[in-house]
Design a protein that fits this description.
Layout lengths: L1 H28 L2 E2 L14 H14 L2 E3 L3 E5 L2 E2 L4 E4 L5 E5 L6 E4 L2 E6 L2 E3 L10 E6 L2 E6 L2 E5 L2 E6 L3 E4 L2 E5 L2 E6 L5 E3 L2 E5 L2 E12 L3 E3 L2 E5 L11 E9 L2 E3 L2 E5 L4 E4 L2 E6 L2 E3 L4 E6 L3 E6 L2 E5 L1 E5 L7 E6 L2 E5 L12 E5 L1 E6 L2 E12 L6 E6 L2 E12 L7 E4 L1 E15 L2 E4 L2 H4 L6 E3 L2 E4 L5
Parallel strand pairs: 1-2, 2-5, 3-6, 4-7, 5-8, 6-9, 7-10, 8-11, 9-12, 10-13, 11-14, 12-15, 13-16, 14-17, 15-18, 16-19, 17-20, 18-21, 19-22, 20-23, 21-24, 22-25, 23-26, 24-27, 25-28, 26-29, 27-30, 28-31, 29-32, 30-33, 31-34, 32-35, 33-36, 34-36, 35-37, 36-38, 37-39, 38-40, 39-42, 40-43
Antiparallel strand pairs: 40-41
């Protein structure tokens, strides 16, 4: 009996201890209200000191900090770890005070920002490069936030792992999101518009694994105020960052490219809608290796899809299942661009694509001697000046053309090129004159006019 009583007593003490812990956890989880720390919304005065006190208190207790509706004027807030900061949906706005950066998170973890607006209100300058700066941080989440009117960028991410979901970015002089040396970003479901130089940049200071995933975003109206010949004006720009996925985004009206990969390895670009690009819609360029470009729609561009720069080591690509249509006769931002649908140079399979309405070459293989191991098969080409063009100069590598359908080629179906000059107008018949070219079945015809 004594043993049973002792056991029951131990169980009772354990229960009391568990209940005490539950009460403590509940108390710790109780949200804090920023107004209780003196934060006053809509007061045109610097609220930074009161806001910082509220942030620090919430972090110390592991509590959620609730922000009031209205504009709260602050600068250079230091966001802590282990805290959720929540605003009133569509109503809470952190506004820069005297051109200061609104907030930064340095070396933090487990930080959540939800339903908060960040607005520079078109101040002429801003300290730092963005409204919000995240550096050296892990497990940071931005959800249903908005960023507007920055004279620089909206969100700058450096050496961090961040999730940006269902946020809105509008009217930024540089980029909506500029990320460098990331440790795995998830950028999904966001709306981005009216940016001066870029929508989303995923860059690295040196080539290496990045692992960012950019999916389901809507990007429109990206200018190239910074000039150049492709550094600016892109909806999504991936530079030196390997193992990046760009999928199922809707991208329209970018001055240069909807999606531009530069010196990347093992990149996937799939299922994207790319409309009215000012230069090449999807570009894999310079020292890239291992680009999969599949099942995208390109409608309106000076060049459709390009996988080039063998001279800089660019090679190894799959271009499959894409629709490319309505190529423009010229590029207003890059006069050197000649109209084409798809271009490949090295170790590339161009298969199962549909290319239509090109006032130039629908599918191009190589440029001068920069050509090696290209397969062009199973494609449907209709209404182009030239269906397929292949470099046949000395030093050009192997190309195999088979099982393509070419309809309504205005000038020629398949030609051999020496740089920009046609040296063989009928490569189907005369492929045996060129050691680097083999041609299988090619169906050439005209579509009946309705």
């Amino acid at each position: 009996m004594a043993g049973i009583s002792l056991l029951n007593r131990r169980q009772a003490l354990a229960g009391i201890a568990m209940a005490s812990l539950a009460v403590t956890a509940a108390q710790a989880a109780a949200p804090l209200n920023a107004e209780d720390f003196g934060v006053i919304a809509a007061l045109p005065d610097d609220q930074s000191k009161a806001m910082q006190a509220a942030l620090d208190a919430a972090a110390a207790q592991g509590a959620t900090l609730l922000l009031p509706a209205g504009a709260i004027f602050v600068r250079d807030l230091q966001l802590p770890s282990q805290v959720s900061i929540e605003g009133v949906p569509g109503a809470t706005q952190l506004t820069t005070w005297n051109g200061g950066r609104i907030a930064q998170a340095r070396n933090v973890s487990n930080l959540v920002l939800r339903d908060i607006g960040f607005d520079a209100r078109n101040t002429g300058t801003i300290d730092g490069d963005a409204l919000l700066d995240v550096t050296g941080s892990l497990t940071v989440t931005l959800e249903r936030c908005s960023f507007a009117n920055s004279p620089a960028s909206a969100l700058r991410i450096t050496d961090s792992a961040v999730t940006v979901t269902n946020c809105n970015f509008a009217r930024h002089a540089d980029a909506a999101i500029h990320a460098t040396d990331s440790r795995g970003l998830l950028i999904t479901g966001n709306s981005i518009s009216d940016c001066g130089n870029a929508g989303i940049r995923i860059w690295r200071s040196a080539s290496g694994p990045d692992g960012s995933i950019i999916t389901g975003n809507r990007i429109a109206k990206v200018d190239w105020r910074g000039g150049g010949n492709g550094q600016n004006g892109n909806g999504i720009n991936v530079f030196r960052a390997d193992e990046v996925i760009v999928a199922d985004n809707h991208i329209a009206d970018c001055a240069f490219s909807a999606i531009r990969l530069n010196a990347t390895n093992n990149s996937q670009v799939s299922g994207n809608m790319c409309l009215r690009s000012g230069e090449v819609a999807i570009f894999s360029e310079f020292g890239f290796s291992g680009s999969v470009i599949a099942n995208n729609i390109v409608d309106g561009a000076a060049g459709g899809i390009s996988m080039t720069n063998l001279d800089s080591g660019g090679h190894l690509a799959v271009c499959s299942g894409n629709i490319v249509r309505n190529i423009t006769p010229l590029s207003l931002v890059n006069p050197d661009t000649r109209p084409y649908g798809i271009a490949a140079q090295a170790d590339a399979a161009v298969t199962g694509n549909t290319v239509q309405n090109v006032p130039g070459v629908a599918i191009s293989a190589g440029y001068g001697p920069f050509l090696r191991n290209v397969m062009i098969s199973g494609n449907v080409v209709s209404t182009a000046n030239i269906g397929i063009a292949v470099s046949v100069v000395d030093g050009a590598g192997p190309v195999h053309i088979a099982n393509n359908l070419i309809s309504n080629a205005r000038d020629h179906a398949v030609v051999g090129m020496a740089w920009r000059d046609i040296v063989e107008p009928d490569l189907i018949t005369n492929a045996n004159r060129f050691a680097n070219v083999t041609v299988g079945s090619v169906t050439v015809g005209k579509t009946p006019q309705s």
